[in-house]
Specification:
mainly beta, 1 helix, globular
């Protein structure tokens, strides 16, 4: 009887911890002020993606500016300038807004959480409609992207299903700093056109609780590298 009672208590404790962890992954970012990432294409730096954090007792606010330009023979052939704002309450996303200019084309996302429906309402340049609460914004500061089943484009609001495969543990060097990382592969989990498919390699530092490197292939080799944490 005592053994059964102990097993029940242990099981309930494990469940409570698992539930609280699943809804509080963003809490440790309250200790951060800024995450800076440099963007490389074919080994040359072309821009940056920087995140700023502020918080109070139960809310987290994240601002991002991403900017890069790709030039061929001195002529600009591809460019992005984007800024966004996110708000989390008790670890849950309740608001997201972004404005982007991609090759002189405007894109946007306005997202808010509707408590009555327990869903996100999205008004985006590529998608207008609803999304499940467990869908995550597809950006690189939040390691919850490694656990999500689908992501929302931070540029246009479109929703893509994804799967994440663990590759193995790796020691990598980024800007002369060594990190013990977990290497993951993030892929599309649906039949969509090749140009819209997700295919990223991601290196995550469990010790730092931060993504330190992302790479992908699209008309060349792209990398996001962690520059600094403040």
């Amino acid at each position: 009887m005592k053994l059964k009672l102990y097993s029940l208590i242990l099981g309930l404790t494990t469940l409570i911890v698992a539930i609280s962890t699943s809804y509080s992954h963003t809490d440790h970012y309250k200790n951060f002020k800024k995450i800076e990432m440099d963007i490389y294409k074919d080994g040359k730096i072309i821009g940056f993606s920087n995140y700023e954090f502020s918080s109070n007792s139960n809310e987290l606010f994240v601002k991002n500016i991403t900017e890069f330009k790709v030039k061929v023979l001195g002529v600009k052939v591809f460019s992005v300038f984007s800024n966004s704002e996110e708000q989390y309450k008790n670890g849950n996303l309740i608001y997201f807004k972004s404005n982007t200019i991609q090759n002189n084309k405007k894109k946007y996302v306005n997202l808010k959480y509707e408590e009555n429906n327990n869903e996100f309402l999205i008004d985006g340049s590529s998608y207008k409609g609803r999304a499940q609460k467990n869908t995550i914004i597809g950006n690189w500061w939040n390691h919850d992207i490694l656990e999500a089943k689908s992501q929302i484009s931070p540029l246009s609001g479109s929703i893509k299903k994804q799967k994440v495969i663990f590759i193995g543990k790796e020691l990598i060097k980024v800007y002369e700093k060594e990190y013990n990382t977990e290497h993951y592969r993030l892929l599309s989990d649906e039949n969509i056109s090749e140009d819209r498919k997700l295919d990223f390699d991601i290196w995550y530092s469990k010790e730092k609780k931060i993504i330190v490197k992302i790479s992908y292939q699209k008309f060349g080799n792209w990398e996001y590298r962690l520059k600094s944490i403040k």
